Amino acid sequence: MAKKSNKENKKSNIKKENKIWIIIAMLFSIILISLLAVMISSYALWNETKHQTTQNIISTGCFSVTLNDLNEANQTTSIGLINTYPITDDKGQNLSPYQFTITNTCDINAHYKIALSTLSNSSLGSQYIKYLFNNVNNIGTIAQLSNATPINLDTETKSIINNLNNPNYVTESYLIEEGSLIPQESKTFNLRLWMSIDADYKMMNKGFYGVISVTSVSSN
Fold it and tell me: What string of pLDDT tens digits covers the 220 residues of the chain?
């Protein structure tokens, strides 16, 4: 009987130990859950999230440079030297000019380039052409067209000129002016062309046909 009693005591002790561990495990779980709850509530309390109440705006402004031909209504935008003859620079600079105005019509600074292009129906060489190009507010310098800086027009500009002057087309172009325009600024230019006094009799019955073009890009 004593032996049996010892076995029962051992079983009873094991059950008690198991209950104790179960209680400990439950207490540990409760403590852990409580700690997590405190941590989460503390994070919510001490971390504040702010968001923007106004809009972020990215807007594009217009960009445009216009050319206004100031010549008589019956004149075209092409420039011609037909039935002319060699003259001195003194006489050439006093000829009536081809006049036009360019205007920056928008709110962005513009950098412009003005080119004089020769058309395919021209037979008078550029080395025999003198020109005087100036803003109406300055004097300008007489130069030989063949000494001006050659320039390659962009495809779109060349296409517009060719379509307007069909069947003739641009053969070469020269840069005669570049500069900048602030928003709403206008500049008026005069262009005078004449046959150089150095042209000989071989240049008889020849002509020059040209077109002014203005290209522009935005600038800071």
Answer: 444 555 555 555 555 666 666 666 666 666 666 555 545 454 444 444 445 554 454 544 455 666 677 665 544 455 777 777 889 999 999 988 888 888 888 888 889 999 999 999 988 889 999 999 998 777 889 999 999 999 999 999 899 889 988 899 999 999 999 999 998 999 999 999 998 999 888 888 888 888 888 888 887 6
Among 215, 168, 208, 182, residue whose Cα is nearest residue 81: 208
Which residue segment(s) compose the domain that 11 sits in? 1-50
Residues 121 and 164 in one domain: yes
Number of domains in the chain: 2
Paired tokens of 133: 């190009």
